[in-house]
Known about the structure:
This protein is mainly α. Helices cover 43% and strands 5% of the residues. β2, α5 and β3 (86-87) form a beta-alpha-beta unit. 26% of the residues are buried.
Amino acid sequence: MAAASLIFGGVLEEFPKLKVCFSHGAGSFPYTCGRLQHGYDCRPDLCATACKTPPKDFLGRIWADSLVHDKDCLSLLVNKLGGDRIVLGSDYPFPLGEDHPGQLIEESDLLEASVKRKLLFDNALDFLSLQPSQFHSSE
């Protein structure tokens, strides 16, 4: 739960411009954020934290890769983190990635074309603070 550690440790609150991208769809964070929020709200004795920002408020700030190997999980990830916070994952150099990186995104019938483009291309540029013109020939 690296994302939870960054939240409850106050790192994301202290450094609001920090961009962090978690592999494998941000692990369990998108799926357990409700539990973290519940603990934050009603059991501060168990979720002792100096962070004043509720965990759910970080959902739009956490970045993740798309390598979840399941279209329903990918759809949930997009719904939780937002279509602007997910980048194409390859699992390189490890052998558990997709045979064709991006195939899950391309073949998903649960995502609109505009979201697919963001996941495959636009979001990575945003995360790295790059411009598309840096990669297109003017010829």
